[in-house]
Design brief:
elongated; 140 residues; 4% strand; two-stranded antiparallel sheet; mainly alpha
């Protein structure tokens, strides 16, 4: 008897489709990863972008960098090795990280919506209300 776990359903049982799916998911994953890294590096390297809106945008890019990294690498390995198994511990770990990054994504989008609300509805008070200290408090 093997290690207890789950059997995953694949997208296709056809061997010729496995390489197409693997290439498609790998290319989408790499585009997403490099795009988010470029956004983070652009915000870090340009001092004009060290403002609250871009602070939240870089954190959102980091979250969007980590979010697909919880599932896509395992899926790519499973497609290449023709394996359909995942252990309980692996599944629970993957789900925990998936939920954490989903919640982080939603929280950042909420804070960014509040930031836009302040910028539009209270433009004269925006710099006082959105100090770097207040931005840091959103994450504590």
């Amino acid at each position: 008897m093997g290690t207890p776990g789950f059997l995953l359903q694949g997208l296709s049982e056809k061997p010729e489709m496995q390489s197409v799916l693997s290439g498609l998911f790998l290319s989408l994953y790499l585009v997403t990863t490099f795009g988010n890294l470029l956004i983070i590096l652009a915000i870090i390297s340009d001092s004009h972008l060290h403002m609250p809106m871009y602070f939240f945008l870089s954190n959102l890019s980091f979250s969007d960098l980590c979010f697909p990294s919880t599932t896509i690498p395992k899926m790519l390995v499973n497609i290449q090795t023709q394996s359909k198994a995942i252990t309980y511990a692996g599944c629970i770990t993957q789900m925990c990280f998936f939920i954490v990054f989903a919640l982080l994504d939603n929280g950042l989008l909420t804070v960014m919506a509040y930031d836009h609300f302040l910028a539009i509805c209270r433009p004269l008070h925006y710099t006082v209300l959105k100090s770097p200290k207040l931005c840091a408090q959103f994450f504590s």
